[in-house]
Amino acid sequence: MAETTTPRWRRWGKEAIWLLLMALVISTLLDLWRSPTLPAGAMSAPFTLQDGSNTDLATLSRGKPLLVYYWASWCGVCRFTTPTVKQLWQEGENVLTVALRSGNSEQLGKGMSKKGLTFPTHNDESGDLAARWQVGVTPTFLIIKDGQLVSSTTGWSSGLGLKMRLWWAALS
């Protein structure tokens, strides 16, 4: 009796699918564990942006999901994610960034100008906001819709991944 064997590509395909599913589950669990807890009143608390204007999360997220990108000038992973956020901003997505311990306003402004970054940015010079929001990892991405935190993730994220999160938030 001849024994049939599964082709190698089929075995590898099954293993790849299982590895992807495990990575997705682990990534989701890590996101839940690292998810910041915004304190009461965080949505209406005023932010002063680099250009001197004031705003708040509730206003910015009204009607269109807001991507809040927590980054730092010294963050290695942010070197890869910041251009993605810049592109989303240039494409018309609703973006607010928070620079963590990246120097005073003048230093941050010079650094952003050097890199061609024009998106609205709040300078969390001392890390007080990060501590209140329990943001312990850079980069951190928050999706806020109508003053409610609907999604968060940390670490590297692709442009497509961020667009899908914004799209999903817009549907809800």
Question: How would you explain this protein's 3D organization?
Answer:
This protein has helices spanning 8-34, 57-60, 78-90, 105-114, 128-133, 159-171, and strands spanning 47-48, 54-55, 66-71, 95-100, 121-124, 140-145, 148-154. The protein is an alpha/beta fold and 172 residues long. The strands form two sheets. A five-stranded mixed beta sheet has the order 5-4-3-6-7. A two-stranded antiparallel ribbon has the order 1-2. It is elongated, with a radius of gyration of 19 Å. It starts with 7 loop residues before the first helix and ends with a helix. The mean pLDDT is 88.
Summarize the structure.
With about 170 residues, the chain is an alpha/beta fold. Helices cover about 40% and strands about 20% of the residues.
What does the main sheet amount to? 5 strands, mixed
- Annotation field: number of helices: 6
* Dominant shape: elongated
Distance between the ends? 58 Å
Integer average pLDDT: 88
Give the H and E element order.
HEEHEHEHEHEEH
Instruction: Supply Rg.
Output: 19 Å
Fraction of helical residues = 40-55%
Query: How big a fraction of the residues is strand?
Result: 15-25%
Low-confidence stretches: none
User: Given the helix and strand composition, which structural class is it?
Assistant: alpha/beta
Count the E strands.
Answer: 7
Biggest sheet, spatial arrangement of strands? 5-4-3-6-7
